[in-house]
Structure to design on (160 residues):
């Protein structure tokens, strides 16, 4: 079975990595798909996000990393993969994820959304929290891998 794990990944955290590693054990091929969102300026460029994900997941042979623009369903059709993986961290994620899953299903009935329960250790974690802690000088080593931590430091030192 082939699956897509989509997101902004600005930046990738241990919470995302936990989902990717668990998917890697269950599925034949996982495409981690970074949304190119022109409407939202991120901290990292799309290329930087792709590089960080590639570097961090290089030990997983069935993970490929790609980017997409536009609708997720169109990307799913393009790469001929009709299963989307989403992580659920807390009940608060549920309403939004349910809405997205139903809208995607309506637009593309062949599409299925599989929800994975996030690791409890990372249920509080989000990319925004990582950015905020890092910008304010806090220690993010428990939240992100070293390569992401170092890239955050470079961004912040360079005035973002
Ligand atoms: N561990 C840690 N953090 C996690 C996580 C996990 N397991 N799962 C989610 N998060 C974090 C993300 O980092 C993100 O944090 P942020 O808001 O601080 O950046 C937040 O939770 C939301 O994650 P998610 O719901 O996956 O949103 P996203 O912005 O990362 O990605 C897309 C959303 C890309 C899947 C979605 O917007 C999309 O498909 N867009 C394409 C357009 C489209 O088709 N729209 C749908 C029309 S119905």
């Amino acid at each position: 079975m082939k699956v897509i794990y989509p997101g902004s990944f600005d930046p990738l955290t241990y919470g995302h990595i936990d989902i990717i590693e668990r998917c890697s054990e269950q599925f034949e091929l996982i495409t981690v798909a970074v949304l190119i969102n022109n409407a939202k300026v991120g901290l990292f460029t799309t290329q930087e996000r792709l590089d960080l994900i590639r570097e961090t997941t290089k030990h997983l042979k069935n993970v490929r990393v790609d980017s997409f623009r536009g609708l997720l369903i169109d990307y799913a059709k393009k790469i001929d993969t009709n299963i989307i993986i989403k992580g659920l961290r807390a009940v608060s994620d549920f309403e939004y994820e349910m809405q997205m899953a139903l809208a995607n299903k309506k637009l593309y009935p062949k599409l299925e959304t599989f929800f994975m329960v996030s690791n409890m250790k990372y249920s509080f974690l989000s990319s925004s929290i990582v950015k905020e802690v890092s910008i304010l000088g806090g220690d993010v080593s428990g939240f992100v891998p070293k390569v992401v931590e170092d890239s955050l430091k470079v961004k912040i030192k360079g005035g973002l």
Summary: The chain has one domain: 2-123.
